[in-house]
Specification:
283 residues; mainly beta; Thrombin, subunit H; four-stranded antiparallel beta sheet; globular
């Protein structure tokens, strides 16, 4: 092969490669104009963070104040308007979830399987109850009762004044689950909770009797990791309908009275910690 032919072939290869890598020019994006202006109203420093990467503590905004716990064990009450520190109550506990407020009392769970009630006024612990496993979501309060879920599949309802357990219910855990639990809710005399096996159950608040059950996240797949169907996302109730989403992306709307499914959709969802790790997860 002479040098002239070799030069032509190499030139052709380079041109073809260049064309294959060429991309059409993108259209200029439209300018976005802010319709609402945001500005920082205030900023306040606290003595810790709001949970680990896999657990984000909630804020309770009620009666002109913000109530929350930090992972250092301190309970805070800040003014909503200016962020002024109204109360800071240090404790010896390590909170594992956010707080629930009922009047003067804040309730929170710990990694050591404790449920704790603290008086804001007296800045003291009213009672502490040892549960069966760590608490990874805030508790629900209604009608003088607390509903709390632990990571071993137990749902417990306690007397909010004394911490005495009134009744308990359990769902068996699959061999592989996502770390976390959904926060139970109390609505219309029912305790509604999602479990690691994909079931959404409703119990009588008074007796603990199972009223209805629906399998939102149905395990599918050959391998255990494919069969993950935990109901760890937050439950939402509106206009007599409870909405729940499973790890596998199944979103369901059910009648709160009967548990009858109104509709169901397959919607992929992501939570921030799992998004950062590059794996699919629930919201």
């Amino acid at each position: 092969m002479n040098k002239s032919l070799l030069f032509v072939l190499l030139s052709a290869v380079l041109v073809i490669q260049g064309c294959s890598n060429a991309r059409p020019a993108l259209e200029e994006l439209p300018k976005i104009e802010n319709k609402i202006g945001f500005k920082k109203a205030w900023r306040a420093g606290v003595d810790g963070n709001f949970g680990e990467s896999s657990e984000r503590f909630n804020l309770v905004a009620e009666d002109g104040s913000l109530y929350f716990a930090t992972d250092e064990g301190s309970l805070y009450e800040l003014g909503q308007a200016k962020g002024n520190k109204i109360r800071v109550i240090p404790t010896e506990y390590t909170p594992s979830a956010g707080v629930t407020r009922n009047g003067d009392v804040l309730y929170f769970g710990t990694y050591d399987a404790e449920l704790v009630a603290v008086s804001l006024e007296s800045r003291s612990v009213l009672w502490e109850k040892k549960l069966s496993s760590e608490v990874l979501s805030e508790v629900a309060y209604a009608a003088g009762k607390l509903a709390v879920q632990t990571s071993d599949g137990w749902l417990s309802v306690l007397d909010a004044g004394t911490g005495d357990i009134l009744w308990r219910a359990k769902e068996d855990l699959p061999s592989l689950t996502v770390r976390g639990t959904s926060a139970p809710i109390i609505e219309e005399g029912k305790v509604i909770a999602g479990f690691a096996d994909g079931k959404l159950n409703a119990y009588s608040l008074q007796s603990g009797a199972l009223l209805w059950s629906y399998e939102v996240g149905k395990p599918e797949g050959r391998y255990e990791i494919e069969r993950l169907s935990d109901l760890d996302g937050r439950l939402v109730v509106k206009d007599g309908v409870v909405y729940a989403i499973a790890y596998n992306g199944t979103l369901a709307a059910l009648s709160i009275d009967t548990g009858r499914p109104l509709w169901q959709r397959s919607i992929a969802s992501l939570c921030r910690p799992c998004l950062e790790r590059g794996i699919a997860c629930r919201s």
